[in-house]
Design brief:
mainly beta; globular
């Protein structure tokens, strides 16, 4: 689906204008409400030993610089926010990109004794890459609404979210996504909580370009191709159902653990959709969740330590069965001779944070974090059989 990357028109000027408008709104917002804003700056640097998640590893150091602005008017249930993030590569500098979001959240109590909650919100997000990789640029609109009912100790939550994402330089990827869910949450005297959830999702795409008469080559750990002819078809919608069960247990006043089972079932038997052939810090393009069925087991231990420190240790085992994607048996296989792609993935992580509350005029708190994560993805497709480890740390200022 995402093969011919240079055939689409360059619209860098349009992206630049849209970014200027978004930043102008954020600055106007900041200037008019300066005294009532909460602000944060976050700088995280980490080492990635397999940048493109490939059997041919490429290493790099990355820095993520983020800013956040939040404003909640007095005696109001509304919250307005802006979030900006700039991802900077040390060696692969042409891949630098930024994302910018502007939106609002709303929540209110209702019902007898205000026992129930209503939530809604929306945001607009813009991703901006350099000219070399601007085919990953997108505009996105996300909106959601849900309610939470307190029914004598059992909490029922149900909701809907909508997302429209437009790739101006890859119009075949433009898509609309719908999700509805219902969740039940029950706590017991043993300090055990059981959560059960069911989701139903649908994703539809714009026109898809298919190519024939191609000559394949390999590079950067994924497939790139040149093509001699093309035709356009409509990609069938992708539909899925998800069931999830989570059990959380408080082991101590400061220690808790959860275990979770999740199963994702495809309601689409066959599709012409194919995942992107390169990993560029955007998991959806690399591995769209609607393109496979899956089953996973995960767990996390959280320890709230003395002196405002927190430690999280967790991991997951995930198996994925792809709907239509073929497996490539070797670096020279361009036909996909391995049958349907099957992946088994394990990942583990450790996260440590330390918060210092200063409560001064110029800074409210500082938060330090150290993170390590490891992924082992075993696949019958050569290009998706890889290991990936990241280690890094950061500092966040809250004003």
């Amino acid at each position: 689906m995402k093969k011919s990357k240079t055939n689409f028109p360059i619209r860098f000027g349009q992206r630049k204008k849209a970014l200027k408008k978004l930043l102008f709104l954020a600055l106007l917002f900041t200037g008019s409400l300066q005294a009532q804003l909460t602000k944060s700056i976050d700088i995280t640097t980490y080492y990635d030993d397999n940048l493109f998640r490939s059997p041919q590893p490429v290493t790099d150091f990355l820095t993520d610089f983020s800013v956040g602005l939040n404003y909640t008017p007095e005696k109001s249930d509304m919250n307005y926010y802006y979030g900006g993030s700039w991802l900077i590569y040390q060696d692969n500098t042409l891949r630098n990109f930024s994302t910018h979001s502007l939106g609002f959240d709303y929540s209110t109590l209702f019902g007898k004794k205000n026992a129930h909650n209503f939530y809604m919100g929306a945001d607009f997000t813009l991703r901006v890459n350099g000219e070399e990789y601007n085919y990953y640029d997108y505009n996105q609109l996300l909106a959601y609404s849900n309610v939470r009912y307190d029914l004598d100790g059992i909490f029922i939550k149900a909701g809907y979210n909508f997302r429209y994402r437009s790739y101006s330089n890859l119009p075949d990827l433009t898509n609309t996504r719908h999700f509805v869910f219902v969740q039940a949450n029950k706590s017991f005297d043993t300090r055990t909580t059981v959560i059960v959830e069911a989701d139903l999702g649908s994703k539809s795409f714009g026109g898809q370009e298919l190519f024939s008469g191609s000559v394949g080559s390999r590079g950067m750990g994924r497939m790139s191709s040149s093509h001699t002819s093309s035709s356009a078809i409509q990609t069938p919608s992708l539909n899925q159902a998800v069931i999830l069960t989570r059990v959380t247990q408080s082991l101590h006043d400061k220690v808790g653990i959860y275990v979770q089972y999740r199963k994702q079932i495809s309601l689409t038997n066959e599709t012409s959709f194919i995942n992107a052939d390169g990993y560029f810090q955007d998991e959806e393009l690399f591995d769209d969740p609607f393109s496979y069925e899956s089953e996973s087991y995960s767990s996390q231990l959280t320890w709230v330590m003395p002196w405002a420190m927190k430690l999280k240790i967790g991991g997951a085992l995930l198996s994925k069965n792809y709907i239509s994607e073929q497996a490539f048996t070797s670096a020279v296989d361009t036909l996909g001779l391995g049958g349907i792609r099957l992946d088994d993935r394990s990942n583990y992580y450790i996260k440590f944070t330390k918060t210092i509350n200063l409560k001064r005029d110029w800074v409210k708190s500082l938060r330090f974090n150290l993170d390590y994560s490891y992924i082992r993805n075993e696949s019958n497709s050569y290009w998706y059989d890889y290991e990936n480890a990241l280690i890094g740390g950061g500092l966040q200022w809250n004003f």
